[in-house]
Specification:
Blueprint lengths: L10 E4 L4 H12 L3 E7 L5 H14 L7 E5 L2 H5 L33 H16 L3 E3 L15 H14 L7 E3 L7 H10 L22 H13 L11
Parallel strand pairs: 1-2, 1-4, 2-3, 4-5
Length: about 240
């Protein structure tokens, strides 16, 4: 039986191992103790992202009983995405595509964030947490529909009517209106361990430097006037 003492975390942070979730964790921990949740969904860089999750959790000294890894293998079998289907190549670019073209990229994993948030709500109710933090970014993302502010507004309504916690539990997306450049700056302000994060969609030894995620990350560090601390194969 889980101990629901007053020492339990006020929130749960969804930590993918990427830059955005790392900065979100730094923000959450500034507001109090937090538990860390990571989800493996059979993505290409699953092991590397899980390693980043544990390294970030170690950096913040999150105890083992407040860090959890959940596996959602079924997303590979039911979703058509370049992140979960090895037969679909991860798109490579020489430069970033224009923003706002309305197209949802092939790296979108259908309704992934809803699956992950449902796990987080169940754990939050179990340990008595009152906030779930997610590092979703709307304006400078790749057009994923489950990163829009409206999605989180609707999900909070679902939590309100469909959980025991009701209105006392909220999903918070503190980066939702920030640019990637601002996220780098916020991370440096909070001494977030950006050197431990991993963003590449395809590779695990060195980041490819040419997928959409790598290019957005590289541009953010460049605009912030900071050298990206992780290794790249192509820049």
């Amino acid at each position: 039986m889980t101990d629901l003492s007053a020492n339990n975390p006020h929130g749960i942070v969804l930590v993918s191992g990427g830059m955005d979730s790392c900065v979100t964790a730094a923000i959450a921990l500034n507001e109090g103790a937090a538990a860390f949740l990571h989800v493996d969904y059979s993505q290409r860089t699953e092991a590397r992202e899980r390693l980043a999750f544990h390294q970030i959790a170690d950096y913040y000294k999150i105890p083992s009983f407040f860090r959890k890894v959940i596996t959602l293998d079924y997303l590979r079998s039911i979703c058509c995405s370049a992140l979960t289907d090895d037969s679909i190549p991860v798109p490579k670019f020489e430069k970033l595509e224009e923003e706002g073209n309305g197209e949802i990229p092939i790296t979108y994993v259908p309704f992934r964030n809803a699956h992950i948030l449902c796990m987080a709500v169940s754990w939050a109710e179990t340990i008595g947490a009152r906030r779930i933090y997610i590092g979703a970014v709307a304006g400078d993302s790749a057009g994923y529909p489950d990163c829009r502010p409206e999605f989180y507004e609707a999900f909070n309504k679902l939590v309100e009517v469909g959980s025991k916690a009701g209105r006392s539990l909220k999903v918070a997306a503190p980066l939702i209106k920030m640019s990637k450049k601002e996220i780098v700056q916020k991370g440096r302000e909070l001494n977030a361990p950006l050197h431990l994060t991993w963003s590449c969609y395809e590779q695990s030894e060195k980041a490819c430097g040419r997928c959409d995620s790598c290019l957005r990350r590289l541009r953010a560090f460049q605009e912030a006037g900071v050298v990206d601390p992780i290794p790249y194969e192509n820049i």
